[in-house]
Amino acid sequence: MKPPKEKKTIQLHFLVSDRELCLLKERMEQTGISNLSVYLRKMALDGYILNLDLSDVRELIKLLRACSNNLNQYTRKAHETGNIYAADIEDLHERLEELWKVADLLLDGLTNIP
Fold first, then answer.
1. Do residues 33 and 49 make contact, with C-beta atoms less than 8 angstroms apart?
2. Are 60 and 103 in contact (CB under 8 A)?
3. Are 31 and 39 in contact (CB under 8 A)?
4. How far apart are alpha carbons 100 and 67 in whole angstroms?
5. Pairwise CA distance, residues 93 & 30, whole Å
6. pLDDT on residue 22
7. Burial status of residue 16 (CB atoms within 10 A of its CB: 0-12, 13-18, 19 or more)
8. Among candidate residues 98, 81, 82, the one with its CA nearest the CA of residue 90
9. Which of 2, 17, 44, 72 has its CA 20 to 30 A from that of 101?
10. CA dist list (Å): 39 to 2, 10, 32, 66, 99
11. What does the alpha-carbon distance between residue 101 and residue 94 come to, in Å, rounded to a whole number?
12. 92, HSE (Cβ side, Cα atoms, 13 Å)
């Protein structure tokens, strides 16, 4: 549960050059923040904003869902027919091994973020 929003009643003012304003706007755009006050407050309080490209993680989740669907199909087939082919199990095992390799690479990359 989020704490209630704190009412902001104190204004802070400071001056920047044209070049600094351009840099601020560029960095805001890079982080996906469109409100200057929010960006400046976040930077002042935390010192940095981490904006990660998680497209690889989304791809991994997509592949895991596909594998999970395959496993469910194999399970249904085993229940319906009373047997399952060793080749199907081996195929699923190979796919899962590949997914674990990708997951390990992603986690290594995330732990090495400066």
1. yes
2. yes
3. yes
4. 12
5. 40
6. 95
7. exposed
8. 98
9. 72
10. 20, 17, 10, 38, 37
11. 11
12. 17
Structure-token pair, residue 32: 């996906």
Q: Distance between CA 96 and CA 67 in Å, rounded? A: 7
- Strand residue runs (E) in 1-114: none
CA dist 81 → 40, 84, 87 (Å): 63, 8, 16
Could you list the pLDDT tens digit for every one of the 114 residues in the chain?
A: 777 888 889 988 989 999 999 999 998 998 889 999 999 988 898 877 677 777 878 888 888 888 888 888 888 888 888 777 778 778 888 888 888 888 888 888 777 776
pLDDT for res 19: 96
Provide the pLDDT for residue 114. Answer: 63
Distance of alpha carbon 30 from alpha carbon 51, whole angstroms: 8
Tokens 């496993």 belong to 71
- Answering whether pTM is above 0.70, one says no
